[in-house]
Design goal:
The structure holds 2 protein chains of 2 kinds.
Chain A lengths: L1 H30 L11 H13 L8 H16 L1 H12 L12 H27 L2 H4 L10 H28 L11 H10 L3 H28 L5 H11 L36 H9 L5 H5 L11 H14 L1 H6 L2 H6 L3 H4 L3 H5 L6 H5 L6 H16 L6 H11 L34 E4 L1 H6 L1 H16 L4 E2 L10 H6 L2 H17 L4 E4 L2 H10 L8 E4 H10 L11 E5 L13 H8 L4 E4 L28 H11 L4 E4 L2 H13 L7 E4 H10 L16
Parallel strand pairs in A: 1-2, 1-3, 3-4, 5-6, 5-7, 7-8
Helix pairs in contact in A: 1-9, 2-10, 3-5, 4-9, 5-7, 7-8, 7-9, 10-11, 11-13, 22-30, 26-27, 28-29
Chain B lengths: L2 E4 L2 E3 L20 E3 L1 H16 L5 E6 L6 H9 L3 E5 L9 H13 L5 E5 L10 H9 L3 E11 L2 E7 L4 E7 L2 E5 L11 H8 L3 E4 L36 H11 L4
Parallel strand pairs in B: 1-4, 1-6, 4-5, 5-11, 6-10, 7-10
Antiparallel strand pairs in B: 2-3, 7-8, 8-9
The chains are: A mainly alpha, B alpha/beta.
């Protein structure tokens, strides 16, 4: 008895000391990060996230089977904390039971149920790991690049925790020390007890002692292992979830640094050049990653054979953080100055520039890591501080700077698209005329690109037809700065953004409708940080509203199959999923088919994150991958609601040689087509006849 | 090694342009930007100065209304300082007057090398650079697609219609560079910050001792260019490639 106490406590003290030392070190390391200057999101949102994402495992359950297995393992660990109390109690008193509830059948049942559930889950995990073994499936495996050895060890240790638990409980039953003596609600323990009973009380007594100590050893050993491995998420995930951006790290970028020349010096560093430039929250992100690879499996860069994997990026940053720990903790500025920048050694430039900022990784991550912000932070440093980036991007940056649009066509051409309209669009010169409801933010693509112009024209015609009044800025409009910002050129972004905000305020803009999801997202989510607060909606939302209210009634001129492609910045980043689908549904002859990757899981077209303006020389083209999927649905029309998606998808459809069979159209063009050859239903508004 | 780069600040080529009614010269009263074709000279100068182990890159420009926004772009790329000649009396100056003004301004820095573009993207006379060289009594090499300094000499690959000539000349001299001689850098934020405080010396024609009399040339009239005739549209009936080759042969291009 005394031996059992001494051994048990010795193991515990040693393991707690080692793990405690490690956790103290980790906490110092993470807290050495830069301050995270984000507005406090409030306890309520954090609590909600803990309930939904940690307790409810919502993001994990997006994938049903691994999600369920994880659900039971996570809850197993929580419920089995009771057995840890029981184990330590039993060290001192063989007849120990938890006060008050210790003999309840329900407790015994829960403990046994979760023991078995965890074992079953472990079998599922084993199956998943064998099925997706990176050794065989290479890059196709979401575990490619993860520490699979450590993962197997984790599975084994969890299994040992449960096995030793069930064995000592069974032996306790046979020696009469079990808190749920003879209670068949503790079904698993009693089941194993039946097997062990023939060995006799003496042997069972030995088994009880050995298995109990083994159980304590495995648990405390596991604690040490966790503190040194990717399995840290057990403790860090709830903290990371509680401190992450809410509702999610999508939409606008996290940081808007003050770039006012008055407030900065030549020593000011923008973006992240070295690991210490990341905030403590980002360092917590790196430490929390559990290498599950869900992000990797949905990344448009990785799945088209590019070197960027969000998982490997985060792992690389974590490894660098640990390797730089002495420097980070000493806070020696001289040492920091001499340290190498993350790019190009730790993060390869091809990795950094492959990101389309589509946000799939952020959407998937069960522990709420904010990958996109980290990538843009590093891009900012590369562009602003080092002027080190793919050279072909020079052109679009200069064009935005000098001509106000990435194509470099200039403001003078921004009204040409209106020439094809058979009604006048008011052009705002001083202020928005009375009686005009919306300012139509056409966007560079809508005003200047041939395919974009058709989209803008169709949108304008449909709004006009529904009686919506709108005006445009024409030459006064300029790029919102989205591509410059996502490319990392925060300075250029803020220059154009401030100018645009000034223009919008000057003309008295209140309600803005945009056809480009990038413009929409930037004005809606990013201009407020620079003092521009406007009510912004996307034309998909406005069209849906008009269709639902009967102000715009699609006709019978189209019949066929349509598949809708979610633009990342409309769907995932801004949660507009239903509206465009509602519009298509309102067209009597249109049958919708969904692609496998749709809505929250929509796959990028390849144009986001300023990728539109860069060469794509590595791997399969993202737009071809997406278009292959769209063509696979057998749809006649690939519909979308973003001019950049239209350009990317249309190019890919043409390149696939299907240009004669399949058309790429904006939802506004689709509505317009339905009205062309067919007769509009009688409920159409009075001004419907001036179209067609 | 000290290098002077002549840079022109021009009206935004993408914005609608207009001519002054009396003089038929380009209206330069709006915002001016750095002529894209001058970015190559600035980059080349920065690289040559760096390879030579130091030395300053000085910009020389002539523009109305004390305009410096284009100069700031070039300073942000890394040039050390600028001399701006801004004088109402120089409004509508012809190529020779411009060359005299620039030559006088360049002389002040006594450079080892002068770089310019082959021509500006607004006036397109293409005559100022060699006039400057002549006025300074220096040799000049035009249309450089590569510039290398070796000892006291400049080795230039001079673009020709059929290829390029290797030309060597001793310093100091003037070289005009083509687009493509080097890829201009995009200014870093550090560069943009630093550019705000770099010295820009603004001088007038009389400061340089240039008499601003009547121009030696004037534009008497301007006529619209003839509209281009529509091209021939060929529909590919499977023989597209052969017909393109035949067309190119006709032009003696292949």
């Amino acid at each position: 008895m005394v031996g059992r106490i001494v051994i048990g406590l010795a193991i515990t003290i040693v393991c707690f000391a080692v793990a405690g030392r490690r956790f103290f070190w980790l906490s110092r390391l993470i807290r050495s990060g830069a301050p995270a200057k984000r507005p406090y999101q409030g306890l309520r949102k954090a609590a909600e996230a803990e309930v939904v994402e940690v307790a409810g495992q919502k993001k994990l359950l997006q994938w049903t089977i691994p999600g369920l297995a994880h659900f039971f393992t996570m809850w197993g660990f929580t419920v089995l904390l009771l057995t840890i109390i029981e184990a330590y109690g039993a060290l001192f008193n063989q007849n120990f039971a938890i006060p008050f509830i210790g003999h309840w059948s329900a407790v015994g049942f829960l403990e046994d149920f979760f023991s078995v559930a965890v074992l079953v889950s472990l079998l599922v995990f084993t199956g998943i790991r064998i099925k997706n073994a990176p050794a065989r499936k290479q890059r196709q495996s979401r575990f490619y690049g993860s520490h699979t050895g450590a993962a197997w060890l984790v599975l084994m240790m969890i299994a040992l925790v449960i096995i030793t638990l069930l064995i000592y409980r069974a032996a306790q039953e046979n020696t009469g020390h079990f808190p749920f003596q003879g209670d068949w609600w503790a079904f698993a323990s009693l089941g194993v007890a039946k097997v062990l009973a023939p060995l006799g009380t003496g042997v069972n007594s030995v088994i009880e002692n050995v298995a109990l100590l083994a159980n304590i050893a495995v648990i405390t050993g596991f604690l040490v292992f966790v503190s040194y491995s990717k399995h840290l998420h057990i403790f860090l995930a709830p903290i990371n979830v509680g401190t992450s951006r809410r509702p999610r790290a999508l939409g606008g970028l996290d940081k808007t640094p003050d770039m006012d020349m008055e407030n900065i010096s030549e020593d000011t560093v923008f973006g992240v050049g070295k690991i210490e430039d990341f905030t403590w929250k980002q360092m917590l992100d790196f430490s929390t990653c559990t290498e599950c690879g869900r992000c990797q499996s949905v990344c448009p860069a990785w799945t088209t054979d590019k070197p960027l994997s969000p998982k490997l990026l985060i792992m690389g940053l974590r490894d660098n953080m640990f390797a730089s720990a002495d420097r980070l903790l000493s806070k020696d500025s001289g040492e920091a100055a001499e340290a190498e920048t993350l790019v190009p050694t730790v993060i390869d430039p091809d990795v950094l520039w492959s990101c389309t900022t589509c946000g799939s990784c952020v959407e998937q991550c069960p522990v709420d890591i904010e990958h996109v912000d980290a990538i843009v932070d590093m891009r900012r440093y590369e562009v602003l501080m080092e002027s080190r980036f793919p050279q072909e991007a020079n052109l679009f940056l200069r064009n935005i700077e000098n001509q106000g649009d990435p194509w470099g066509l200039g403001g003078a051409k921004r009204l040409e698209w209106t020439e094809a309209l058979d009604f006048d669009v008011p052009v705002v010169t001083s202020s928005i005329p009375d009686g005009v409801e919306y300012l139509y933010w056409v966007g560079c693509a809508g005003a200047l690109d041939d395919r974009g112009k058709k989209q803008a024209q169709a949108t304008a015609r449909m709004l006009h037809r529904a009686g919506v009044t709108f005006a445009v800025l024409g030459p006064k409009e300029s790029c919102t700065g989205d591509p410059a910002r996502r490319f990392g050129n925060e300075y250029l972004f803020q220059e154009v953004a401030k100018a645009n905000i000034e223009t919008l305020k000057e003309v008295g803009a209140v309600k803005i409708v945009a056809t480009c999801p990038h413009c929409f997202n930037t004005i809606k989510n990013e201009y407020p940080a620079l003092g521009g607060e406007f009510e912004v909606i996307h034309h998909a939302e406005l069209l849906a509203h008009l269709v639902n209210n009967g102000k715009l009634v699609p006709g019978g001129g189209y019949s066929g199959t349509v598949t809708y492609h979610d633009p990342c910045y409309l769907g995932r980043h801004n949660r507009v999923f239903d509206e465009p689908r509602d519009v298509i549904d309102a067209i009597p002859g249109a049958k919708q088919v969904e692609m496998g990757r749709c809505r929250e899981k929509g796959f990028c077209c390849g144009a986001g994150g300023a990728r539109m303006w860069m060469e794509e020389n590595i791997g399969k083209r993202v737009n071809m991958d997406r278009t292959d999927e769209a063509l696979g649905t057998g749809a006649d029309i690939v519909s979308t609601a973003c001019p950049f998606c239209m350009i990317m998808l249309d190019d890919a459809v043409q390149a696939s040689g299907k240009g004669d069979e399949v058309r790429v159209m904006d939802i506004s063009q689709l509505v317009e087509e339905s009205l062309l050859s067919g007769s509009a239903p009688s409920s159409a508004p009075a001004n419907a006849s001036d179209d067609a | 090694m000290n290098v002077v780069v002549c840079v022109k600040q021009i009206p935004d080529p993408a914005a609608p342009q207009s001519l002054e009614p009396g003089t038929h010269t380009l209206d330069r009263s709006g915002k001016l930007i750095l002529d894209d074709s001058d970015a190559y000279g600035v980059e080349m100068a920065l690289q040559l100065a760096e390879q030579a182990g130091g030395g300053d890159v000085t910009l020389v420009s002539m523009a109305p209304n004390g305009e410096t926004s284009g100069l700031r772009t070039a300073l942000a790329m890394g040039a050390a300082s600028a001399v701006l000649v801004s004088d109402d009396a120089l409004k509508g100056a012809d190529a020779l007057t411009t060359a005299k003004v620039l030559a006088a301004a360049i002389k002040k820095s006594n450079p080892d090398l002068i770089l310019t573009a082959t021509e500006s993207s607004d006036g397109y006379t293409g005559t100022v650079p060699v006039q400057i060289a002549e006025l300074l009594g220096l040799p000049s090499i035009t249309f450089a697609k590569s510039v290398v300094i070796e000892g006291g000499n400049v080795k230039v690959q001079r673009q020709t219609e059929s290829g390029y000539d290797d030309v060597v000349a001793p310093l100091p001299l003037l070289v005009t560079v083509t687009a493509g001689v080097v890829e201009p850098r995009y200014p870093s934020f550090k560069g943009i910050m630093a550019a705000k405080s770099k010295p820009v010396e603004t001088v007038t024609a009389s400061d340089l001792g240039i008499a601003t009399g009547a121009a030696g040339q004037e534009i008497t009239s301007v006529v619209d260019a003839e509209a281009r005739a529509a091209g021939e549209i060929v529909v590919d009936d499977g023989d597209g490639a052969q017909r393109i080759v035949a067309f190119l042969e006709e032009l003696k291009l292949v």
